[in-house]
Amino acid sequence: MTAPNAPAPSFDHIIIGAGTAGSLLANRLSADPQRRVLLIEAGGRDDYLWVHVPVGYLYCIGNPRTDWLYQTEPDAGLNGRRLRYPRGKVLGGCSSINGMIYMRGQARDYDQWAAITGDDAWRWDQCLPVFKQHEDHHGGANAFHGAGGEWRVERQRLRWDILDAFAQAAQQAGIPATADFNTGNNEGVGYFEVNQKSGWRWNTAKAFLRPTCYGRPNFELWTGAQVMRLLFEPGSDGRPRCCGAEVWTGREAVTVRATREVVLSAGAIGSPQILQLSGLGPAPLLQRLGIPVVADLPGVGANLQDHLQIRAVFKVQGATTLNTLANHWLGKARIGLQYLLTRSGPMSMAPSQLGAFTRSDPNQPWPNLEYHVQPLSLDAFGEPLHDFPAFTASVCNLNPTSCGTVHIRSPRFADPPAIAPSYLSTDEDRRIAAESLRLTRRIVAQPALARYRPEEYKPGVQYQSDEELARLAGDIATTIFHPVGTTRMGRADDPMAVLDSRLRVRGVHGLRVVDAGAMPTITSGNTNSPTLMMAERAAAWMRAEA
């Protein structure tokens, strides 16, 4: 980094955030030796053991070494509760602390994006080849999957009898079995595929930065460096041009300049925060905080969408679950030895192993629920496992109509933003929450699970009415860590669209946002791999435009 009085270092491209999108962008742009690329990451390197051991998410979430430690504002839909809101603060970003589930969503998600933006480039048939471009699927290349790319997709390395029984019960309840959730129609029940390699987590830092980028003389990486604000200069047509950033290194503020473009890939929380600190956002908010308005963009920080999971817990008898294995030293020793010798067993498992996509009622035109089923139970994430055998059937509404906000509290870059998801704030979301709990009960009541004598521990069978179940959903639900939409793309005549369909920020030159915040609507499933696809697409556009 530069000394305080030295000329500001200059690069062709500055990428802010070395997470899912930023790692791929850095790889693709620095492949051209004529481009100088700087990648800035507020967190540290991914050299922490628990980043790489799959079960290590338990030690990364809530850990200041790897997590921003955000909390939501008190939420009326959650009966006034706050939620822990994990976001990756480490190379690889959320791909270093997430559930590793490889999920694209449904074809209709992308067709909807195309309709919203007026750009057919976002149609499913145009996005599918982009997914395949960086994929390395365990089954090899076919009509839906790619091979030889950087993003490894594997089967999980363990199974559980209790989860197999749940899958059979789901089929008895009318949900078909599926071997592949990623063909554009994810309806069905089966084990999730995961981003792992031989029993290790496969994050985007390993996939796209190491070793490729590290050996390129035109690539530079700064870690432990937090962007304070973006810098602007007058453009030739009167519109401001983003020309760089002011960066806090932990010791001093350093200015860095971009001759071509700055790309924000700080995520659906970090990117709107940086935009607002830099004078791009709702003018009334900026003026109230004394920040000069560069561009009045009311959509910055609006349209926050997330998947809220309702965690129903069932006690069982005669079943092996993680509760029974991991609650005494001998079981923990066996688990550790199994992973050490075979890279399998509970230490290799994703937070959720079994998935199901189905409809909250038969009149739904498409699957609108996702289940994450786990052979364990606890009161809340980060709390100890229960001392009785149990499984958890978490269910989320894939297409919530509730939207929240992300707004800075002050002009100080170190202050966390106010995150207000506004969960369960619409009648439709509350109705679907009640319906999803009833469906969970119907699945668990099927013959396939009868031998385990499941007993509903949460929310409790005494709650039956729509009103009771919606209120109880507010008591037991939590985020599944899929915030999107806070810098969404859209048409030119949409006043709330922050970006055009090529992810360029409206009202200024030289600035894009490439992360999950750009999604106009949330995908029907886990959001990490769709974000990677968006970055692949943006990199191609940036290369072509130059």
UniProtKB/TrEMBL annotation:
Keyword Flavoprotein: yes
Pfam families assigned: GMC_oxred_C, GMC_oxred_N
Keywords, alphabetical: FAD, Flavoprotein
Domain of life (superkingdom): Bacteria
Cofactor: FAD
Keyword Flavoprotein appears in the UniProt entry: yes
Binding site for FAD: 90, 227
Domain Glucose-methanol-choline oxidoreductase N-terminal: start-end pairs: 267-281
GO MF entry, a single one: flavin adenine dinucleotide binding
Chain coiled-coil ranges: none
InterPro entries per the UniProt record, alphabetical: FAD/NAD-bd_sf, GMC_OxRdtase, GMC_OxRdtase_N, GMC_OxRtase_C
Family recorded in the similarity comment: Belongs to the GMC oxidoreductase family.
PANTHER family (UniProt xref): CHOLINE DEHYDROGENASE, MITOCHONDRIAL, GLUCOSE-METHANOL-CHOLINE GMC OXIDOREDUCTASE
UniProt-recorded name of the protein: Choline dehydrogenase
Lineage: Bacteria, Pseudomonadati, Pseudomonadota, Betaproteobacteria, Burkholderiales
